[in-house]
User: Which sequence fits this backbone?
DNA sequence: ACTTTAGGTAAATTATATTATATCGATTAT
DNA sequence: ATAATCGATATAATATAATTTACCTAAAGT
């Protein structure tokens, strides 16, 4: 069976992963030794991976990403593979149930794929924007009050100055469980083409 | 070294990958045999992975993703990740003159072009980070207190919930003109190479 | 009944990932 | 100069991923 082509592509991936790992390690000023103790992966294996001469197992990949507290996709350069489309921008300021007032701060359509909003969530109310298009990442910070956020089947309770990051393409809802207004700061990024 | 916890997490990842693979395969109505010939990975290995009883190598992961023509991150559920940043959990960094405390919220410098920080500016003090590299854009929001910001020769006075956007490559300084702490929310973007 | 297909299991083998240890050259610091 | 650190390299040993082959059960079709 001819798998030369595939093998070469897999080789390329290994090389790219190695370059990425080396770049991240050097950006943090770490030696192979230090990285080894952080990740519980031997220095030799790390060196081999960085030189693209390794075929690391999933557990090793996970250990490295975990030790560096980065997503695995950061190692695999998967960010660049994501296909994009731009959000269709309706200029809504009020949500359907009027529970939430959205206030655009900077519209980055002219500068890049970034939008910043401020949102005021009324007491004891819920705002469900639904899922956005693929490639949207939301960063939400609680500026005042409390926020209960539901992302698919999981709930997260955030207090003042807490932040959360998640993929906006997942079904989610913002809930103000308190009797006073909640103020949120939204940063939304859209993957580039 | 105690790595039981980490190992369990790695196990969880393997299980999740297995579930994802099985779901994708069944959604496409493929048998293990068919998937094996599509991916050039043995049926037994595929079965082991689906049952979470395997620790596949990067090349096998790549072969599967390639055979199914899906991004690797789709297999790894990387886009399902949710990160929460709590108010006081981050490692704070002090500026040279100790006027400003910087608290990273989400650091994407290694795999993207976005960083989010929270900053605490001491009463009646100034923080001058100098000019950053070219291509940096800063979005600053006042979460609490007041901020006087100097950008080259111009001054801007911001109050609670005000925001400002400017090019970080220009010389700038953050000034807290009040007697109480100022809390800022930073979003910094970097143009990609 | 019988046959086929799918998926799980087992044993044996091959291939290779991972580690430990040591050495080497280059750089950096004292 | 000398020592120390870093990354590359080599070797050997161990652990385990991956394949092959075979057999098993359950379900679905004929």
Assistant:
């Amino acid at each position: 069976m001819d798998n030369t082509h595939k093998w070469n592509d897999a080789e390329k991936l290994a090389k790219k992963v190695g370059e990425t790992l080396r770049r991240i390690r050097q950006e943090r000023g770490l030696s192979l030794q230090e990285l080894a103790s952080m990740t519980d992966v031997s220095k030799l294996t790390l060196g081999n991976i960085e030189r693209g001469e390794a075929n690391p197992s999933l557990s090793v990949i996970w250990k490295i990403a975990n030790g560096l507290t980065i997503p695995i996709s950061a190692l695999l350069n998967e960010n660049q593979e994501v296909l994009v489309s731009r959000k269709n921008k309706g200029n809504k300021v009020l949500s359907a149930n009027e529970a939430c007032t959205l206030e655009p701060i900077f519209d980055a359509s002219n500068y890049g794929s970034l939008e910043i909003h401020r949102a005021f969530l009324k007491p004891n109310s819920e705002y469900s924007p639904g899922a956005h298009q693929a490639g949207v990442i939301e960063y939400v910070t609680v500026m005042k009050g409390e926020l209960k956020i539901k992302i698919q089947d999981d709930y997260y309770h955030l207090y003042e100055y807490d932040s959360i990051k998640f993929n906006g393409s997942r079904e989610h809802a913002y809930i103000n469980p308190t009797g006073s207004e909640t103020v949120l700061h939204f940063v939304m990024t859209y993957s580039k083409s």
